[in-house]
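Fold this sequence, please.
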Amino acid sequence: MSPREAFRRLRSPVSAPHSPSSDDISTSERAKTRLTTIMAEISAMPVTDFFPQTQTQARRHPSDALRWFILSDIFALLWGFAIAWSAASVINTTVLGRSFESLSLLAEGLRFSQFVMVSLGVVLWFCHTGQYKTRMPFWFETQTVVKTLGFALIVDGFFQFAAKQDPSRLWLTSAWLFAGFALLSSRFLVRASLRRSQKWQLRTLLVGSGIMADETRAALRSEPELGYEIAMQIENLPLLLEQTDNSWERLCARFNADYVVIAMDGLALADAGEAIAQLAREGIPFSISPPLRHLPVLGMTPQYFFNHDVMLMTHISNLEQPLPRFLKRSLDIFGAGIGLFFLSPLLISLALLVRRDGGPVFYGDKRMGLNGRPFMCLKFRSMVQNSEAVLEAFLEKNLRKKAEWECYHKLREGDPRITKIGQFMRRWSLDELPQLINVLRGDMSLVGPRPIKLAEKDAYDRDISLYRKVRPGLTGLWQVSGRSNLSFSRRVQMDGWYVRNWSLWHDIAILFKTIPAVLKKTGAC
């Protein structure tokens, strides 16, 4: 029986008398028996009968996409070389008043040959490390590009020193700087072109259920530029594999999927070991999202053992490394000093406006700092002087706002405590600029978890020990992820993730993300 016939039979009415009679019970029993029989026949059908064969096979990542990425990188590197030569020539001759040796004067184009050789090494390294096949979020891809081109700059400089050349140092450094911008831009354009031609989307089978599957789905959807498109979420994997003759290829073809992501909890992942091994044997590309909830995901290094199916994930905490912490503190001092110098006219103007209502300019509140030491966190005063009494009276009269306060520990709109100048400063996050002084004093960092009140430490539960290891930040992960639109519990989770997975590169990425977040005023209140 085909599915169409089964559902036709299921929809067909069972004749019954229009008036009550002695046949009512027997008719009802016959209907139940018929329904049970049809449902049993449907349940026994292979799942493939419900998904007709498609004429198009699963869309694989096209082979020409790999060539496009390689060609775009080569073009970007050469473009960076040419633009840097032009820029160095103009700056040396017009600004510095020095002669600049043009490319045509270089014997046998030695300088160009050196750059091409190093650039070829860069492209080969990207191929070797899977850069053109691995889909990475923008900031992680940028980190890889910066590290690779930084090393290429050192190698290029060594070659010029070994050849006893006297090149323009401006040309040398700017060539790789321009190449980095061009490389990231060209990759973005290639991906955009592939998306328009429907060659970048990667239809994905998500295998798993529960928290791990939900978080994996949310993570994939949070980076739409990666192209992961959830074709189907499979919760009962053994049943579907049984109904497709234990063939992943047939299962993927039924859903027109290109890729498989395994996102299972610990016990389910162990039980699916043979199914995952079969996935590898069939050569279908896949990824595994291991259950690492509340564990560090950055700094985990895989360690293999010869002739054993064992892999150790060794964690190296950046928080315990002296050099990264020294670099972070150096960045704090430099950034806060520069910020105070250039923003001093704005700070003075805001201080005068706040002072107009007769109250103090600054507001200080005790917050928890490094090693649990309390400090006075500075802000421009944006509230009336009797703010606590005003808030208490307001919440007693407004139960809806009271519920909002209990959830967010903030009032996103209609806060009666905030002054007019305070509304302006909060909208643009200007009230927090005095915290640059806290950064210089060592109480805070430019980037870190939000400075919490002493009464809020219980909400961090066991993660409070991690929180004490870092300085709270002027900006942070939750500030660039929605700010006051996030619930208090979600902000606590983000602070925990930041501390567990801290790196200097994360700080740099958050600093760059802070600028558009402030300009968009997302979650500002």
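The CA atoms of residues 364 and 376 lie 5 Å apart. The first helix runs from residue 3 to 11.
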